[in-house]
């Protein structure tokens, strides 16, 4: 079922979660253990992130080093299939530009279509750890809009190989990312919204936002989108703060601001348990306010903290 169909048929705010694939070497059971505490709330879907390979240097027996490509969290396509089979709900894979050629992307999309997956979230992805800025693969997509157009082309039966005639058409509902505090590479929010509008005009049917901790920034973002002519559903992405370290890590990695009231409360906490309680209470109030605002979905980045998210969701739904 497509995201837009879920939203259009809903009478109230929906619920969804996001998970990471298990680290290589762990079994699917570790993912089920992560999701099981959340399933009682009947989420509409679960997002599964996609991870590019990383270049690493491994020491050989003779003391020299060899460069190898390692994907630490493989299995996004298989995990989506497992979630759909195990829980009988929709799974939405992230599809990224970084680390993949257009042909590899096309093959992945064909696999997803064969599995009956109706939705994808298309993202450029982050730069590799050894790159100062994002560099696409040779014969890969440069930007999220390029990837979006590839998915949209496949929806119309357009394949890379031009000799394919009357190719089977996929039916993906395509989502894109939105940044209430702007993408860190954009010079300003106005230009960031311009790029977002181009993606919507190119076929994006919904927007999933980066995490934020100040609802007013989301409200302003939604209003700015409407003024720019962006009228697709905008889904807020939410995450609990659970450690003091996150006060510096989250702004550095995700380029988001932490409200003063929240950071002060976290700093006053004396134990990890107290920090977790502060983060839980903040996210509960944040979620209730967003729900009252009328957001179509509350989307939670679980990322290793399913029990905290569960404590929030049971107070909101």
Describe it:
The chain has 317 residues and is α/β, with parallel strands linked by helices. It has one domain: TIM Barrel (Alpha-Beta Barrel), CATH 3.20.20. The chain contains 11 helices and 10 strands. An 8-stranded parallel barrel has the order 1-2-5-6-7-8-9-10, surrounded by 4 helices. Helix 10 packs across helix 11. It is globular and about 60 Å long. 36% of the residues are buried.
Question: Which helices and strands occur, and which strands form pairs?
Answer:
Blueprint: H1 3-8, E1 14-19, H2 28-35, E2 45-48, E3 54-59, E4 65-70, H3 76-87, E5 90-96, H4 102-114, E6 119-123, H5 144-155, E7 173-178, H6 189-201, E8 206-211, H7 215-227, E9 234-238, H8 246-254, H9 260-268, H10 272-293, E10 297-301, H11 306-316
Parallel strand pairs: 1-2, 1-10, 2-5, 5-6, 6-7, 7-8, 8-9, 9-10
Antiparallel strand pairs: 3-4
Task: Give a brief outline of the structure.
The protein is of the alpha/beta class.
- Low-pLDDT stretches: none
Shape summary: globular
Q: Span from first to last CA? A: 22 Å
Strand content: 15-25%
Strand order of the largest sheet: 1-2-5-6-7-8-9-10
The percent of residues in helical segments reads: 40-55%
Count of the separate structural domains: 1
How many β-strand stretches?
10
Structural class: alpha/beta
Mean pLDDT reading:
93
Assigned CATH architecture: Alpha-Beta Barrel
**Name of the CATH first level:** Alpha Beta
Question: How many helices in DSSP terms?
Answer: 11
